[in-house]
């Protein structure tokens, strides 16, 4: 699943090619329409396909921002409103002149939403596994989970928020891996970067937060921030399906010390895997205590 660095990379690319442009036309796939007919909610949530098309057509793109792992498109028609997008497991935006220009067939075959911009170019959303989300909101609070997200990890309030939450009665006895993957505690840090930060700090992923000193918690948070920033500079991580809007892969996966590894890069010990917070957690039984 794309995490903060991957989403940040997409936003930084979409922003200059879309801001100020008008959405001249919107196309929605038959797959989405069929899901609506069957009472399901593939990708487009809480609005019918035709309603989605009508709402977006003619709107101007005013801002494109990232909040945690979400993309916020601020649109203006009669007034300003939001199109909020989560990439899910395999969602990807492509900026092309025609759909045939999307580089890989697996993405071309799973295009579900196409925005035709006033520049004549297309912003196409492809989602192979269809776990992505699109929500049309008048304001952020119309989807309450958005209001529960932790401060951005680069914000000055984020460290204190992390420490307060991690040391609270609700969380202090939970596994540290589960805590740092919780978007209400740290925004945008998922399994990949949690694994890397814990390996860098030599902390066992199942260690309870209460068994980690405050000094070490501060160092862990700083490590998470540093790894997220490094990944942004590297264009994110491509494990399977992440691509930027030009169809390019990230390169952060080439720098991993632990995620997806069979052997510890530091000591050579065979890695082990635990399930924590519903996710597979790879760690070194020798280095991480």
Automatic annotation (TrEMBL):
Domain FPG-type: 257-289
GO biological process: base-excision repair
Catalytic reactions of this protein: Hydrolysis of DNA containing ring-opened 7-methylguanine residues, releasing 2,6-diamino-4-hydroxy-5-(N-methyl)formamidopyrimidine; 2'-deoxyribonucleotide-(2'-deoxyribose 5'-phosphate)-2'-deoxyribonucleotide-DNA = a 3'-end 2'-deoxyribonucleotide-(2,3-dehydro-2,3-deoxyribose 5'-phosphate)-DNA + a 5'-end 5'-phospho-2'-deoxyribonucleoside-DNA + H(+)
Protein name: Formamidopyrimidine-DNA glycosylase
Known cofactor(s): Zn(2+)
Superkingdom of source: Bacteria
PANTHER family given in the database record: FORMAMIDOPYRIMIDINE-DNA GLYCOSYLASE
